[in-house]
Amino acid sequence: MTNADEPGRSDEIVDAEIVPAGPVPGSLPDPNYSDSGVPTFDFVRDKIEHRITTAIGSQELAEAGPEGQSVDEMMRKRDEAAKKRLEEIRKSMGS
Q: From start to end residue, where is composition biased (Basic and acidic residues) (predicted)?
Protein backbone atom coordinates (compact mmCIF):
# COMPACT_ATOMS: atom_id res chain seq x y z
CA MET A 1 0.00 0.00 0.00
CA THR A 2 1.48 3.40 -0.97
CA ASN A 3 0.74 6.84 0.44
CA ALA A 4 -1.54 7.50 -2.55
CA ASP A 5 -3.66 4.46 -1.58
CA GLU A 6 -4.34 5.77 1.94
CA PRO A 7 -7.44 7.94 2.37
CA GLY A 8 -6.58 11.63 2.71
CA ARG A 9 -2.95 11.14 1.62
CA SER A 10 -1.33 11.85 -1.69
CA ASP A 11 2.14 11.72 -3.24
CA GLU A 12 1.32 14.96 -5.02
CA ILE A 13 3.96 17.67 -4.55
CA VAL A 14 2.59 20.94 -3.22
CA ASP A 15 4.52 24.15 -3.77
CA ALA A 16 4.56 26.30 -0.60
CA GLU A 17 6.33 29.32 0.74
CA ILE A 18 7.49 29.79 4.34
CA VAL A 19 6.26 33.14 5.60
CA PRO A 20 7.99 34.83 8.55
CA ALA A 21 5.87 35.46 11.65
CA GLY A 22 4.77 39.01 12.29
CA PRO A 23 2.62 41.65 10.69
CA VAL A 24 1.76 41.26 7.05
CA PRO A 25 3.40 43.98 4.98
CA GLY A 26 0.84 46.56 3.91
CA SER A 27 -1.70 45.56 6.58
CA LEU A 28 -3.03 47.90 9.21
CA PRO A 29 -1.43 47.57 12.67
CA ASP A 30 -3.57 46.04 15.42
CA PRO A 31 -4.83 48.98 17.51
CA ASN A 32 -4.87 46.79 20.63
CA TYR A 33 -1.11 46.21 20.57
CA SER A 34 1.97 48.41 20.40
CA ASP A 35 4.52 48.02 17.60
CA SER A 36 6.56 45.75 19.89
CA GLY A 37 3.56 43.45 20.49
CA VAL A 38 2.58 44.66 23.97
CA PRO A 39 -1.19 44.92 24.61
CA THR A 40 -2.51 48.42 25.32
CA PHE A 41 -3.90 49.37 28.72
CA ASP A 42 -7.39 49.90 27.25
CA PHE A 43 -7.35 46.44 25.64
CA VAL A 44 -6.33 44.75 28.89
CA ARG A 45 -8.87 46.75 30.94
CA ASP A 46 -11.68 45.87 28.50
CA LYS A 47 -10.72 42.20 28.60
CA ILE A 48 -10.73 42.17 32.42
CA GLU A 49 -14.07 44.00 32.57
CA HIS A 50 -15.56 41.51 30.11
CA ARG A 51 -14.41 38.57 32.25
CA ILE A 52 -15.80 40.19 35.41
CA THR A 53 -19.21 40.86 33.88
CA THR A 54 -19.32 37.33 32.48
CA ALA A 55 -18.50 35.89 35.90
CA ILE A 56 -21.12 38.04 37.62
CA GLY A 57 -23.74 37.09 35.05
CA SER A 58 -22.91 33.40 35.39
CA GLN A 59 -23.19 33.65 39.17
CA GLU A 60 -26.55 35.43 38.95
CA LEU A 61 -27.89 32.77 36.57
CA ALA A 62 -26.66 29.97 38.80
CA GLU A 63 -28.25 31.53 41.89
CA ALA A 64 -31.57 32.06 40.10
CA GLY A 65 -32.07 28.37 39.41
CA PRO A 66 -33.35 25.79 41.90
CA GLU A 67 -29.88 24.23 42.30
CA GLY A 68 -28.40 27.61 43.17
CA GLN A 69 -31.13 28.31 45.68
CA SER A 70 -30.60 24.95 47.40
CA VAL A 71 -26.86 25.62 47.59
CA ASP A 72 -27.59 29.02 49.15
CA GLU A 73 -29.84 27.34 51.72
CA MET A 74 -27.15 24.75 52.53
CA MET A 75 -24.55 27.52 52.95
CA ARG A 76 -26.89 29.48 55.24
CA LYS A 77 -27.47 26.40 57.42
CA ARG A 78 -23.76 25.63 57.55
CA ASP A 79 -22.94 29.22 58.56
CA GLU A 80 -25.57 29.10 61.32
CA ALA A 81 -24.17 25.79 62.62
CA ALA A 82 -20.64 27.23 62.55
CA LYS A 83 -21.73 30.29 64.55
CA LYS A 84 -23.45 28.10 67.14
CA ARG A 85 -20.40 25.86 67.44
CA LEU A 86 -18.13 28.89 67.83
CA GLU A 87 -20.39 30.20 70.63
CA GLU A 88 -20.20 26.81 72.37
CA ILE A 89 -16.41 26.78 72.14
CA ARG A 90 -16.17 30.34 73.51
CA LYS A 91 -18.49 29.46 76.43
CA SER A 92 -16.48 26.35 77.26
CA MET A 93 -13.29 28.44 77.30
CA GLY A 94 -14.90 30.92 79.69
CA SER A 95 -14.88 33.89 77.29
A: 73-95
